Automatic annotation (TrEMBL):
<keyword id="KW-1208">Phospholipid metabolism</keyword>
<feature type="transmembrane region" description="Helical">
    <location>
        <begin position="194"/>
        <end position="212"/>
    </location>
</feature>
<protein>
    <recommendedName>
        <fullName>Phosphatidate cytidylyltransferase</fullName>
        <ecNumber>2.7.7.41</ecNumber>
    </recommendedName>
</protein>
<keyword id="KW-0548">Nucleotidyltransferase</keyword>
<comment type="similarity">
    <text>Belongs to the CDS family.</text>
</comment>
<keyword id="KW-0443">Lipid metabolism</keyword>
<feature type="transmembrane region" description="Helical">
    <location>
        <begin position="125"/>
        <end position="148"/>
    </location>
</feature>
<feature type="transmembrane region" description="Helical">
    <location>
        <begin position="154"/>
        <end position="173"/>
    </location>
</feature>
<keyword id="KW-0472">Membrane</keyword>
<feature type="transmembrane region" description="Helical">
    <location>
        <begin position="15"/>
        <end position="34"/>
    </location>
</feature>
<keyword id="KW-0444">Lipid biosynthesis</keyword>
<feature type="transmembrane region" description="Helical">
    <location>
        <begin position="67"/>
        <end position="85"/>
    </location>
</feature>
<dbReference type="InterPro" id="IPR000374">
    <property type="entry name" value="PC_trans"/>
</dbReference>
<dbReference type="GO" id="GO:0016024">
    <property type="term" value="P:CDP-diacylglycerol biosynthetic process"/>
</dbReference>
<keyword id="KW-0594">Phospholipid biosynthesis</keyword>
<feature type="transmembrane region" description="Helical">
    <location>
        <begin position="218"/>
        <end position="241"/>
    </location>
</feature>
<keyword id="KW-0812">Transmembrane</keyword>
Amino acid sequence: MTPPPPPRQRAGRNLPAAIAVGVSLVAVLAVGLLLIDWVFVLLVAVGLSLGAWEVCGAVARLGMRPARIPVVVGTALIVLVTYLSPALPTTLGSTGVMLAVIGLTMIAALVWRMPQGPDGFVRDAASSLFVIAYVPLLGSFASLMIAHPDGPERVLTFVLIVVAGDLFGYAVGLPFGKHQMSPTISPKKSWEGFAGSLVGGMLVGVICSIWLLDSRWWVGLVLGVALVLVGVCGDLVESLIKRDVGIKDMSSILPGHGGVMDRLDSLLLAAPVAWVLTTLLVPPVA
């Protein structure tokens, strides 16, 4: 007799596997951030490189040919060099170094495509530049945050708020969600779940602001609202990409979650906002 398939919830995921993988990822990131921050940076470099590989594969379904090798290699270098920039013999600063490596990655992607001739060059080049802007450019702001003296605490706050928004939104939306937020993009997202995400993000934001950032409680409220809002947008953006391409998940590398990009979508769009707000609102450590 064929064994029954693992139980699946209304949200279409293997819930026990999803929870186990999610908790494990957050735990590893937290340990890496608080104990050995370069471990976190390596994980980010690997994660974003895998995400860039997945997005390259996705857009290839539309007939585009992104320069996958330069994009993936450049993604890892953008993260690593940005993190190492304070120790480099340059006056560019972390932001300048990040932009320089991004620019070089774009040049490499364009040159990589040149030998294949003019047919479809604009289409293929646009797909490469889209992946670079979407994955390593947005994700590298986490490296900028960690360059601060209290960088690990800033990044952990950013990650915990976004993750809390996802978890609270799922916990509230699954049993109580009745009003669809965006039926044509993500039918399972509800306004009730969004309200839960806001509450969870603000709650975790206040806690992190006080205990991790040694800042004022209202800073946590601002971070919570802003990061949840843009995190939801990040989820919807990836849903638009997948619907355009015609796939459910970017890959199946993470049990219960799908691909790496299915976990990074909210974090990617939230990273630049987190960097801006923590830079403006959280005083630097003396």
